[in-house]
Amino acid sequence: MTRLVVVGAGLMGEAIFSGLLASGWAPADIVVSDARAERRAELSERYGVGSGEAVDAVADAQTVLLAVKPADVGGVLEEIGDRLAPDALLLSVCAGVALATLQAGVREGTPVVRAMPNTPARVGEAITAVSPGTHATDDHLAEVTEILGAVGRVITVAEKYQDSVTAVSGSGPAYVFLVAEAMIEGGVHVGLPRDVATELAVQTLFGSATLLRDTGDHPAILRENVTSPGGTTAAALRRLEDHGVRAAFLAAVEAARDRSLELG
Ligand SMILES: NC(=O)C1=CN([C@@H]2O[C@H](COP(=O)(O)OP(=O)(O)OC[C@H]3O[C@@H](n4cnc5c(N)ncnc54)[C@H](O)[C@@H]3O)[C@@H](O)[C@H]2O)C=CC1
Ligand SMILES: O=C(O)[C@@H]1CCC=N1
Q1: What is the interface pTM, i.e. ipTM, of the complex?
Q2: What class has domain 2-159?
Q3: What is 172-263's CATH number?
Q4: Rounded to whole angstroms, how far apart are CA atoms 247 and 234?
């Protein structure tokens, strides 16, 4: 049997299976399938993994990773849903797509897990929230934790939280990159060469995230540590509050949560 068949080998599919290879899985453990034949060929050539049509590959899979766009899930499940081996596990990372929808698309009794990773998977620093379906056992969750643990941290949440998870951590990297762009532009605006502004902004984001994670201190405490009375940071934070940045983040996360609900 193939340990993992990836159906939809785009950005997320590649990030996850390449992380598994880096963690020691053999290329022979993995088969990639994608609607674009040239993409399959490119990945097979670059990583040495197998490639094939989803409809054939899934019949021999221990786990099927579903990583197509949410709009393509219905068609893919129609194609492969009743082709999975009887004890195969279906692992979906598709935003908004409910366990009920996934379970309705496969044979009764098939174990299904819904997961939401994020793009830092490409560098082994993802956070993924997983929710087991009706027939997923602890062994299935252990398998999923091994797969997604190869690209970062894994937590388990009730499915009712998945749309909110998507809004915070699934989409979250885009918010951080927007902040990065804005900080770099700010630096250029006050006269720094672009490469200097970029290095300052990127390392500041990395260092701040590491400080937050490693100390476990509340972000408000860490922010206060930077903010001298009457100083530069207080002047800047006042402007951010004037421009409603905190409220904008609340509204943005809410909009992403609502969109995830719609996609499902
Ligand atoms: N990009 C992100 O930040 C994240 C994406 N996701 C979810 O992961 C899934 C994939 O997203 P991306 O990798 O960003 O998209 P992508 O567009 O890079 O990859 C999707 C792949 O599916 C292939 N595909 C389309 N129809 C197919 C079919 N019928 N059979 C086989 N392959 C087919 C496409 O050719 C493409 O390579 C989405 O459902 C998304 O919601 C989840 C977490 C984060
Ligand atoms: O924007 C999206 O729909 C996907 C889901 C999470 C990140 N990207």
Answers
A1: 0.98
A2: alpha beta
A3: 1.10.3730.10
A4: 18
